[in-house]
Amino acid sequence: MLDELIEERKKKLAEYKKHTNPYPAKVKRTLHIAPALKNFSALSKSKKSVVIVGRLVSLRDQGKIIFENITDASGAIQIVLQSGKTKEFDLLRRTVDVGDFIEVGGRLFKTKRGEKSLEANYAKIITKSLRPLPTTWYGLEDIETRLRDRYIDLLLHKETREMFVKKRLFWSSVRDYLEKKDFLEVETPVLESLPGGAEAEPFVTHHKALDTDFYLRISLELPLKKLLVGGYEKVFEIGRIFRNEGIDRDHLQDYTQMECYWAYADYVDMMRLTKDLYKRVVENLFGTYTTKSGAHSIKWNGAWPKVNYYTAFKKENGIDLKNTNVEELLKRAEMLNMKPEKNIGRGRLIDLIFKKTVRPKLIQPCFLIDPPIEISPLAKQKPNDPEKAERFQIMAAGTELGNGFSELNDPIDQRKRFEEQMKLREIGDKEAQRLDEDFLRALEYGMPPSAGFGMSERFFAVLMDKPIRETVIFPLMKPKN
């Protein structure tokens, strides 16, 4: 059936080509649709001719008169073509289809039913569509199809197009806020000789000119911290990172992340800044501080309490992290029907249990603070409690939406942390961090006391109340067979 429709359109294309080019390089548009409608009264009274262009989305052929609706990025309008009034009416009637792009010139008027319309003096095809547009019930209710054929999803669903306009505003709000706070935006390399700054498995690629394998970055952290060594005091980057891990509602393999670093500040200072940042972003996007997440109303202008990691973990699991070992944690994981990898480290095991038991219950925005040092290899220890890290995570809607530290700047301590991570790698933990001599050398020159913070587009997904894949304009998909 589809093949027959395509063949029919190809015949129409061939006929139209005998008269004129259906794929011109230039059009004569004088006005977009939205301003034409906004200034309709003055334009229609002046009887001034206007030229608009757009995609034909509906067509009602009544013989001597054809009613068409066309859209551009700004809006939609009805076009009226009439035999004897519209140039090459008969040719268009035989060759035009829903989905074609057309150029129309004429005057604005109201029909007998009062609909604002354009009476066409001429109309011509400027792009012939060979495939018929699917209707909203033809294949696009399936989310996999909508994501794979995103251009059709965008074409048929205005709300999807509007979401990505909001996403641009989301990132511009983040950028504007940080720049007003005197942070300098920079760009750091995507390819790294060693992946660092996070616990994640990287993608590997080969650089032909250097005949060397490199990794796609899993974080922005280490290069930005080197800039603090180099004399900058406030830096940030918004860039793509890549992690070779699983897909779920909150995770992607490639996504956009922002990280910022602030010299002479600690994690308490960064908590104040990030709370204000998040509130500003939400207000810019919605004009309010309240958003929806499932059945919950999330209030971003609330108190943002500080939730102690150890206390919350004990409440949900009955385990005191100050007095427990790997065996006890493994038993708890088994009770939760979890299947952690063999030889998993204590820190990773704590983190997995926390994500299963505590995180889903943190609905309203809060700061989760002071986790075990084992799960924070780049954060400073608390001076009065060295088992804990000066770290916070922004939690809301049952997920993590940001992560900040008082950054570790003691090169000797950092080397010990890296060595502990390398031991985990040696026994099979693919996500443990690598020992990075270049970064250690930078720290040996001296990095000032600093705070760092990272957030990803997961925050935007939560604000939209959608799985993160649906908020990516072209998410990575497994190729069709």
Overview of the structural elements:
With 481 residues, the chain is an alpha+beta fold. It has 2 domains: 2-133, OB fold (Dihydrolipoamide Acetyltransferase, E2P); 152-471, Bira Bifunctional Protein, Domain 2 (BirA Bifunctional Protein, domain 2, 2-Layer Sandwich), CATH 3.30.930.10. The protein has 15 helices and 20 strands. It has helices at 2-17, 33-38, 40-46, 89-95, 143-148, 150-156, 158-180, 221-229, 267-286, 309-317, 326-335, 346-357, 411-426, 437-445, 458-464; strands spanning 50-61, 65-72, 75-82, 101-110, 116-127, 184-185, 191-192, 204-207, 212-216, 234-242, 254-263, 290-293, 296-299, 306-308, 366-369, 381-382, 385-389, 391-396, 399-406, 450-456. The strands form 5 sheets. The chain has an 8-stranded mixed beta sheet with strand order 6-10-11-20-19-18-15-14, sandwiched between helices. Strand 8 (204-207) and strand 9 form a beta hairpin. The model has no long low-confidence stretch (mean pLDDT 92).
Distance between the termini: 22 Å
Strand content: 25-35%
Which radius of gyration do the C-alpha atoms yield?
29 Å
Kindly report the name of the CATH homologous superfamily of the largest domain: Bira Bifunctional Protein, Domain 2
Q: Which outline best applies?
A: elongated
Query: Helical segment tally?
Result: 15
Please give the largest β-sheet: 8 strands, mixed
Strand count: 20
State the share of residues found in helices, binned by percent.
25-40%
Major sheet: order of its strands? 6-10-11-20-19-18-15-14
Structural class: alpha+beta
The CATH topology annotation of the largest domain reads as BirA Bifunctional Protein, domain 2
Any idea how many domains? 2
Mean pLDDT figure:
92
Looking at the overall shape, the CATH architecture of the largest domain is 2-Layer Sandwich
CATH class of the largest domain: Alpha Beta
List the uncertain runs. Answer: none
